[in-house]
Amino acid sequence: MNRKIVFVSVLILCAFSYGKIDLVTLPDREKVQLTIYNSADLTLVRESRTLTMKKGDNKLQFSWANTLIDPTSLDLYPLKDADKISVTDLYFSPRITGLGTWNILSKISGKVPCEVNYFTSGISWQAYYIATLSQDEKTMKLEGYVKVKNRSGEDYENAQVRLIVGKIHLLDEIANLARRYPPYGRPQEPLPPREILGEGKFMLAQASDRMIEKRIEKEGLSEYFLYTIEGTETIPDGWTKRLLSFSQDKIPVINLYKYDESRFGKDTVRFIHFKNSKSHLLGKEPLPDGLIKVFKIADKNQRLSYIGQDRTKYIPVDQEVELNLGAAKDIKIEPKKTAYKTLNYVFDKSGNIAGWDEEQEWTVKVSNYRHIPARVEITRNFPHQYWSIENRGDYGNYKQIDIKNVRYVIEIPPATTKQFTYKVTLKWGERQN
Amino acid sequence: MKIWLIFAAITIIFLSGDASARTKFVALPEREETVIKLDNPYFTLVEEERVLTLQKGTNQVDFSWTGVSVDPDSIRIKILDHPEEVKLISVSYPPGENALVWQIYSPQAYEEKIRISYLLKNIDRLITYRLVADKDETKVNFQSHLILRNFSGEDFSMAKILLDYGEVFEKSVAHEETKQMLLLSKDNIPIEKKLTFDARILPWDPEKVMGNVGIPVIYEIKNDRKSALGEFGLWYGKARVFQDDGRGSTIFLGEDNAGYTPPGEKFALYVGDSRDIVVTQRKIKDIKINVRRNNGGGIVLYDTDEIIRVEIENFKDSTANLTLIQEIPGEWDMEEASHGYEKEDANILKFNIKLAPKSKETVTFHYHRRNVR
């Protein structure tokens, strides 16, 4: 056991004499709740302890040596008799690290249930996903996991674990506050520079890869999403736990291929498109950002092949998801300039060229060499906003995106080639006015 | 104790350049009341009251310190009992010493109460705020703590610690001790939650961004009587915001530095980002019109015809208040806007959009920039 947080309740005999303290009880943690954030190295710890109060002045010591607790976050309050118990102050004694003492004035004596809240760093969680495409690539099985790591220096036994998805605003790294002595710094002293906690500073966590099929309750709060893991977990310092968050089969997916020279160069990039919605058998909760590994069922014997991985963004409920699986080889998109001419020249008073039109004709060939249908999204970029366009052929769904970009969306059956043509007229110089 | 008050009564005034030659009749009057005044965030004023046993005639009072840093020019003395009769004659600083010598004339023997004030270094305070919002994010429980950091070298026994507002604390504070005290605690203070998309700062096309574009979430509290505040300006300090989860626990929403907030002003905290509201902004028209030329045919002046389209998706199942901030440089006329807006100044427009749960809203505005050179 590696318990470093110690709670000592003391009865003082003399108001300002550290020497005359009398140890009364050593209350144990009765309940502990961990609310772990994924956008920052931060966990809110909430402990319940029953303290034995004496009528009058009480001192409560809280020590946390060798842990990563932020002492500026310490908060203590009674769960009942709040009108009879007042926390008069919290002090950090001279030259003693990892120790805080509360002065509590109580009008009653006896057992009082209390809560202590504080932040710790060193506990983190991450979402990750395993996606398995069906053999016909029309559907996908998606499994979501959460991995909780404890490198906080403290063992948390039988803790209720809650995970927060969301982007919080923090001024200081909790790890820096935990290391800072004195707890609030010194007068007129700048705070220590921000330091990122390097992975290398910790011992490698031993992964406990056993599968626990626990229910995870999910709800939205403010701009965050809260996952509460059923029951309690014991996460000793240095350990990692993996929990299944959800598993959903038969999610309909679209094989989407994009061509956009301004973003991907000359590559056609493969995406798996679906929606985090009820119609896609999802949509119960937002999907936290995390790494997703995409596999495919390769044959009738359910053998797998690995397609690739992507880091997903946070996906709110009902938002569309596009997993980027990298350059595609069996969908080809080949734009070719087939004609070029300039016309409608205008000249200034000195006889110099002041403007002209430029006509470009392009043919775009779209080939699907696969045995499954695909959706192709072709974005064409223009140098400025002074243009007009004529489309011909099998160009699907055409849309102007903004002043310099247009998009064609084409559904293409297996083993098929489609072709379309567009003529763009670009106006240059005086022809723009 | 490192600040000493040495009291001597002498009849002949003699101050030689040699400090060791000074007559020192020692009497150490105890501190009666000590006040640590923290209303200035950079300088801490200590005021202490002591009783001097004055002889008839001229008395010499030595005030010296070691191991602490007192600003010698800040030291003041105030005669409290007989200010009309007891007079301060002179103040001198002996060479090479952290000391000051007062000469005080008393017409008769008095037990005289005096107050000494000085600025003491390496002792100061921080103000922190702890807010717990209710589940609907309409009210907060508002707490403010005073944190006294005493690294001055001096131990204080039962000193009165005060800011310019809130409670006066009577506490002992040792050297190198940090003490946190609850200054204010108010329940049910109304808050306003605001989301702001500032088109000058945030990316227009979330598709082209790695990761999510977070829309900043701001909590605003008005420092006024309606909010059960407003009696005094609230000092700047770090604020941590929590929210009641409706199940007897809380979650942490985020933290920000609160600026100094005078009465009547708003206390605004940027707590985090919303990723459930997605804003995609695009320019769909931008051409030159009304082109005016010089005699040589060169363009000297033109207007523009521009259209901006902003698509907003609220993926949350609750309503949200979003402020869109847009900038149109120079001189301009609005031709058409799909939504009303306020002008923050000549060039900044603010659209306040109420988004229904799970809704999409498109804001379009069409304007001409005028007389572009």
Could you please describe the fold and organization of this structure?
The complex is a heterodimer of chains A (433) and B (373). Chain A is mainly β and 433 residues long. Chain A has a domain at 331-432: Sandwich (Immunoglobulin-like), CATH 2.60.40. Helices cover 2% and strands 59% of the residues of chain A. Chain A contains 2 helices and 30 strands. Chain A has helices at residues 174-179, 261-264, and strands at 6-12, 21-25, 31-37, 43-53, 56-63, 69-78, 85-92, 99-106, 110-120, 123-133, 139-150, 156-165, 167-168, 206-208, 216-221, 224-229, 233-235, 239-252, 254-260, 269-275, 290-297, 304-312, 320-327, 331-347, 353-368, 374-381, 387-393, 397-402, 405-412, 416-429. In chain A, strands 3, 4, 6, 9, 12, 15, 16 and 17 form an 8-stranded mixed β-sheet that branches. In chain A, strands 14-18-11-10-21-22 form a 6-stranded mixed β-sheet, with no helix packed on it. In chain A, strand 24 (331-347) and strand 25 form a beta hairpin. The longest helix of chain A is centred in the middle third of the chain and has 6 residues, at 174-179. With 373 residues, chain B is an all-beta fold. Among the domains of chain B are: 3-120, Immunoglobulin-like (Sandwich), CATH 2.60.40; 278-370, Immunoglobulin-like. Chain B has no helices and 25 strands. A 6-stranded mixed β-sheet of chain B has the order 5-8-3-2-11-12, with no helix packed on it. In chain B, strands 18-15-14-21-24-23 form a 6-stranded mixed β-sheet, with no helix packed on it. Chain B is elongated. The model of chain B is unreliable at 9-26 (pLDDT under 50). At the A-B interface, strand 3, strand 6, strand 7, strand 13 and strand 28 of A face strand 9, strand 12, strand 13, strand 16 and strand 17 of B. Strand 13 of chain A pairs antiparallel with strand 18 of chain B.
